[in-house]
Amino acid sequence: MTDVNKAVVILSGGLDSSTLLHCVVKSLKVPVVATLSFYYGQTHAKELASAAKISADLGIANFRIDLSPVMKDFKSALTGKEDIPEGHYAQENMKKTIVPNRNSIMLSIAVGYAISLEAGRVFYGAHAGDHAIYPDCRPEFFEAFKKAEEIGNAWTPVILQAPFMNITKADIVKIGLELGVPFQDTWSCYRGKDKACGTCGTCQERLASFRDADAEDPLEYVDRTSWIDTERKWNETHVN
Amino acid sequence: MTDVNKAVVILSGGLDSSTLLHCVVKSLKVPVVATLSFYYGQTHAKELASAAKISADLGIANFRIDLSPVMKDFKSALTGKEDIPEGHYAQENMKKTIVPNRNSIMLSIAVGYAISLEAGRVFYGAHAGDHAIYPDCRPEFFEAFKKAEEIGNAWTPVILQAPFMNITKADIVKIGLELGVPFQDTWSCYRGKDKACGTCGTCQERLASFRDADAEDPLEYVDRTSWIDTERKWNETHVN
Q: For A73, which residue in chain B has the nearest alpha carbon?
């Protein structure tokens, strides 16, 4: 039997899911029996070390799930099959960073883990900024998928929850600051090198979110300023 | 881009999915670019050799996907964590054979493969007899899941199809006989030994389906008759 007072949290090691974990533990006060992190061949596998540290610091077991044999033939810029695109996070070429059906696969496995661990809830950190490029981060996807999982696991119910679905990454930064999330231990950059690049879509989005939250990102960047020009150009053509 | 005239078929190596594959190729005439078979630690991994042969005989590439590292902690009688239950296929104790969230996980991965192979359709062989014990084989699950996948893969549409959803296994046997499916090469028994046992739920269901289709199962069984008594007892208490 699953217990609605036990949760599993999907933790990439990035800013969003790390804040989500702190939020579930400290604000929602739902006991987290495990965090799940997925290795699918991503170039920025460095995020997994972040996930392990963030989870361990809260005393929570972190399961690293190796999907790389399953996804080895999947085409995506995130798995080194194409170059990491530069520019604004909502720009058309960012579609190269889609990993085919990634969220559906990860959420399905997370639900299977939750059932095995007798946890009745799975949390994941999709947010409003993901919607433009990633259809599998949209509320319509999430609601349909959540419904399917409820029907498909009738004997062992698991509720999927995405508390950040309708807030921005800047809002997440503000929540994280309030909760004392160690942002310096999180990792977002798609290039996964020594320092964050500052020019890939996810670095740009992260830096803009800290700016919008009136805060400073404690991470070290190769280039901390050129995103401002990219954003200005994007806004000139895309914002009325 | 995905092409609706290319299909991927999920092939366990059992009677249902083998008939489905022949049906897609010979009746629906949709070109099948690959069959997908999943190893998740099932005791009856023997079915994977059946899947490979059935696929090869039709000249179709068979991808064997290893989910065993992902599912190693999942509890189920099918992965040796509990004994294989005996009795009628729709009996309560058959719930032990549930693998947590299996269909959701496999369908999600199949959709990811389809996108990578540019196929616009995924076929799978759930049928009416699976509904009692396995909620993730029910039409309500399938419809909700299919909808989620459509939304989640907006740039690369994939249609999920389960043509056998509302017919019985006996109907599938009839279709298979018509299409010349090599039933002797398929494998169903959950015990996965040299001969099919004839007493596990899936053997019983298979033998009953051949009887209902007025046909003889070409497989060798350890015990080909005791299921008849089990069925009689089940009918006395469950059928009006």
A: B116
CA nearest to A81, candidates A68, A97, A95? A97
Chain A neighbors of B145, CB-CB under 8 A = 145, 148, 152
Residue B104: closest CA among B68, B147, B69, B137:
B137
Q: How many A-B residue pairs are in contact by the CB < 8 A criterion? A: 137
Residue A161, SS3?
strand
DSSP state of A182: -
CA A178 to chain centre: 19
ipTM computed for the complex: 0.87
Give the closest residue to A34 by CA, choosing from A7, A70, A53: A7
Q: How far is B161 from chain A (nearest CA, A)?
A: 15
Q: Which CATH number fits domain B3-238: 3.40.50.620, 3.30.470.20, 3.40.50.300, 3.40.50.150?
A: 3.40.50.620
Long-range contacts of A169-172 (CB under 8 A, 24+ apart): A169/A15, A169/A16, A169/A127, A169/A128, A169/A129, A169/A205, A169/A206, A169/A208, A169/A209, A170/A208, A170/A209, A170/A210, A170/A212, A170/A213, A171/A127, A171/A213, A172/A15, A172/A16, A172/A19, A172/A125, A172/A127, A172/A209
- Cβ contacts of A136 on chain B, cutoff 8 Å: 151-153
Residue range B103-157, pLDDT digits in tens: 999 999 999 999 999 999 999 999 887 777 788 888 999 999 999 999 999 989 9
Answer whether A119's CB lies under 8 Å from A3's CB: yes
Q: How far from A49 is each of A14, A62, A63, A64, A187, CA to CA, in Å?
A: 11, 10, 12, 10, 9
On chain B, the residues whose CB falls within 8 A of the CB of A74 are 112-113, 115-116
Q: How far is CA A18 from CA A26, A106, A158, in A?
A: 12, 17, 21
- Taking CB atoms and an 8 Å limit, are B153 and A69 in contact across chains? no
Minimum Cα–Cα distance from A133: chain B residue: B155
Cross-chain Cβ contact B135/A148 below 8 Å: no
Cβ atoms of B127 and B168 closer than 8 Å: yes
Q: How far is CA B70 from CA A202, B110, B172, in A?
A: 28, 15, 32
> Consecutive 10-residue runs of chain A (240 residues): their mean pLDDT?
96 97 98 96 89 98 92 72 68 74 95 95 89 84 95 93 95 98 95 92 93 96 92 81
